[in-house]
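2024-03-11 09:14:02 INFO queue: dequeued item Proton-efflux P-type ATPase, len=757
2024-03-11 09:14:02 INFO validating residues
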Amino acid sequence: MSAKISGLSQAEAEKLLTKNGLNEVPEPQFNFFKEFLSKLWNLSAWILEAALLLECILGKWIQSLFVLLMLLFAAWNGASKKKQSRRVLNNISHKLTPTVSVERDGKWQNIDSKYLVPGDLISVQAGDVLAADLRLVDGQISTDESSITGEAKTVRKNPQDPVYAGTTVTEGSGLALVTATGSNSRSGKTINLINNSAAPGHLQQLLTKIIYYLCVLDGVLTLVIIIASFFKGGDLKNLINMLPFLAMMFIASIPVAMPSTFALSNSFEATRLSKEGVLTSDLTGIQDAANLNLLLLDKTGTITENKTAVASWTNFSKLDNKQVLGLASAATDQRNQKIIDSAIDDYVKSQGLSVQSASDFTPFTSATGYSMATAAGHNIKLGSFKQLSLIDPSASAKVKEIDFGAGRSVALLIDDKLAGVFILQDQVRPDSKEALAELKKRGVLPIMLTGDNQKTAAAVAKEVDLRGQVISIHDFSDETDTSKLAGIADVLPEDKLRMVKFFQQQGYIVGMTGDGVNDSPALKQAEVGIAVSNAADVAKRSGKMVLLTDGLSSIVKILDAGHRVYQRMTTWSLTKLARTAQLTMILTFGYLFFDYIPMALNAMVIYTIMNNMVTMMIGTDRAQITYKPENWNMAKLAKIAFSLASGWTIIGIAAIAYLNTHGWSHGTISTMVYVFLVLSAMFIILITRTKRYFWQDYPSKAVALTQLGDIILTVILALCGIAMTQINWTNLGITFVVALLAAIVIDLFYQPIMKNR
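2024-03-11 09:14:37 INFO prediction written
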């Protein structure tokens, strides 16, 4: 039937494209105001809103204004960063638009799916995510229509049946005519391969843990202040007057800038990766790359070049060699050529022959193990020797002299009798050995997965210096020592999901490369699923990363991006915990030792706002690449942060004690404490962002400029007495010297701990 169907001419297609427009539906515009309002309705916002209400009830109108500004800033900042992340992912998504095999002017070609028009004749096969409404005109396929119906079961499609945009072809192949595109399609939109989620997977966990640690600390210190106030002879009125300070202690604990910092860092790296040949379809893949310690690698197309050549050909037929090769070419897929199809066609052409066309053709599927064609009155089957030997029982006796370990074997049956065997070989990529060595250097265990036999797999593993055992999947069990594995042979696509789950149960953070429709469940299951450049559409949609170039070098870039995000968020976590702990401890111990809270309420609010501004920029900071898989150990980070905060607190309390006993007024001390806290916060960022001494490294321009702006504003407020008691240049200089000396002393003790972080 396919012979009677023809596609459009290029001129007709261009005319229809002008009339109907591109095959896409513009996504709804990002609503900044709606996103802004949503940021006013979450846990962090509720705490700020409760504090605002308390300040208003107590008549603290200036403080109420500051809290309101903080609340609005948090909402505006969150919405702005969400808009930025959305823009980054939308820009990347254009590069992930599926390509379609379409017939134009009587020739098959691959085009961007957005250029499809009604009337186009396209080829569909398993793994395709359809980008337009179609009518099947030849062949049989099964589709997953859950994206439009919500039902997970597959639907069988026969000629003349409609097939809808956004559905996935799970089985079969055929030809189809485009019936509707863009807004006119049933789904109302084209396929979008991007998961538009700017919120990283671990963000909520990390956010909850940080709030937990800080609230526990604040709760304990608040209780201490309340009890101490009664022992010091305070009354209920005095306690009520302290409520704004206690409220501010909890406000300071809220990680207002954390979601924005995380989104900014991930978006920053997603943009960077897109320029390096890696597209990010899910931002969680970047952060998970820092924890990656095992990578399952496809041999073909990843370790070896995505081009296979015929190394040897043996004719077992009584037919002429040229006639047999011609019939073999009739069984290769001319519409959607894979590497084996191309290799056999190239070999046929190298023998001075032409590729024959088939009167009837059924493409290869993993279920059958072969393609089938009818040509020159013969039935031809081309595919797996294992599968085809079941059809011709005499085949095994004919191939005793064939070295199946020399490469990939492709058998040919003519009229259900073995007619020949091709041995194909893949060439190892020039960068594979070096890239695998780099992965191992970074603590990642690479394990090769291949459908080839054990002997072939072992030869490739040796060539790329993958040391360890190469075993057959049939010999793999729960008792297998995975740490000594170099590769697993005889792997079927459906085995890959089982492998991913097995290694995850063993405690590994698993990455995986894949390209086929049957790889999709495993790619989705893996923490870092990586679809290679020639992957099927559904595989690209399932993975979190899509490679634009062949080979392994790009995977190293993904690891680098993950480590940079991890280092920035570690810096943010340490900084937030240390700064907040320092603030609350200085205020608490100041009250216990000196009978007053040594910082003005207005200054406390300003300090909290300014800190959130500078910590947000950590998401763009320069970061160091580490050579081991990371993990989020919040208990350890909390211990380090509180130890750091204790050092600053001891020095701060000692300085306050000196000032109290040498004639400085409470108001002057309060402003000097504010300046000290701002400077210490800046130094804490510089100390925690590097494993070297802070004076030996420098932050990014954005971080440095924001810090400089905070310091200049602090100096102006302190010298002019805005929202706090005015101080002179001498007091300002003393505070700067104390903060600098404290930073040097603390860093001398801190760096040995930091290096083992």
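2024-03-11 09:14:37 INFO annotate: Residues 30 and 304 are 43 Å apart (CA to CA).
2024-03-11 09:14:38 INFO item closed
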